[in-house]
Every structure is written in C-alpha cells, then in structure tokens.
C-alpha cells in the first residue's frame, strides 16, 4: 500500500493525461486483452512521463481469475512476446522472453493452459506486433531503479 512511481498499471481503474496520449499514442490495438497497459506505460516512461500508484484511491472489483477467459493463456503469451518485440532493446528481448517462459513453466498447473500458452507464444513470434519503437537504455535504467527492470 505504498504509493509512488511504478512501471506499469492495471487497466481496471486509472487516469491518463490527454497530453501524454497525444504524444505517445493510445492503446495498442493489436493486443486486445492483457499487457496493453504495460505497453502504454513503457512508452510513457520512455517519453519522460511518470506512472504513479496512489493507494489512497479505492477501487473495488470482484475477485476474479483472469484465467476465467478461454483465451487468457494464449493472449497472455502472444501479447508478452509482442510487448517485448515492440518495446525492448533487441538485446533484452530474448532475456525477457526466457524469464517469462521459465516463470510460466513453474506457475502453470494446467496442461491445456500450458498448451494454449505455447500456441500464443508461437503466434507472437510469427505475427507482427505493430510498430517497433524500442525504449532507450536510459528508460531501462529508470525502470530498474524503480524496482522493475524490463526483464521481469
């Protein structure tokens, strides 16, 4: 419950600057479900904007599992690949994807879910992710100082 600068946000409740959106563009249309907030946050950080978490703002949402959607595993994997391909410096793309592959293998308890995840990962590799505009190394360092290097 500590507020401050962060590197991403959940899309359930947020406020965005119209100046920021005009400058960096909006949501990545290709994504549709999962990781579009991270894509937007990384682009905002790279443009010098701040992403701030304010714990005093109370938002309520029923506790639900994102895996309740049939496409969750596939879209999560595909969009994570796209997030890396669109935004990370080339040297970090394989590191980011390897870390998330290992985390997924350790966390996923469902064989059908894992199969869907692998299919989504392959789809992300095969299909274009939209425009590639890698963040600067100074943004990578800023994200690392904020406690979330863009390989986790």
Low-confidence stretches: none
User: Would you tell me the overall average pLDDT?
Assistant: 92
Q: Write out the strand line-up for the largest beta sheet, numbering strands in chain order.
A: 1-2
Class from helix and strand fractions: mainly alpha
Quaternary organisation of the protein chains: single chain
Cα distance spanning the termini: 21 Å
Q: Give a short account of the largest sheet.
A: 2 strands, antiparallel
Helix segment tally: 6
How would you concisely characterize the structure shown here?
Helix content is 49%, strand content 4%. With 152 residues, the chain is mainly α. It has a two-stranded antiparallel sheet with strand order 1-2.
Characterise the protein shown here:
The chain is mainly alpha-helical. Helix content is 49%, strand content 4%. The chain contains six helices and two strands. It has helices spanning 18-24, 36-46, 72-87, 92-107, 111-126, 137-145; strands spanning 4-6, 51-53. Strands 1-2 form a two-stranded antiparallel sheet. Helix 2 runs parallel beside helix 3 and helix 3 packs antiparallel against helix 4. The longest helix is centred in the middle third of the chain and has 16 residues, at 72-87. The chain is globular and about 40 Å long. The model has no long low-confidence stretch (mean pLDDT 92).
């Amino acid at each position: 419950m500590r507020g401050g600068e962060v590197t991403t946000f959940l899309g359930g409740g947020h406020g965005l600057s119209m100046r920021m959106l005009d400058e960096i563009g909006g949501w990545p249309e290709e994504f549709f479900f999962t990781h579009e907030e991270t894509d937007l946050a990384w682009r905002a950080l790279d443009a010098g904007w701040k992403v701030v978490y304010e714990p005093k703002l109370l938002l309520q949402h029923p506790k639900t599992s994102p895996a309740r959607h049939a496409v969750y595993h596939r879209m999560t994997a595909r969009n994570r690949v796209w997030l890396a391909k669109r935004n990370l410096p080339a040297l970090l793309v394989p590191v980011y994807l390897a870390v998330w592959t290992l985390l997924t293998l350790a966390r996923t308890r469902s064989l059908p879910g894992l199969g869907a995840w692998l299919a989504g990962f392959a789809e992300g590799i095969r299909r274009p992710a939209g425009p590639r505009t890698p963040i600067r190394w100074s943004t990578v360092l800023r994200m690392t100082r904020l406690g979330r290097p863009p390989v986790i």
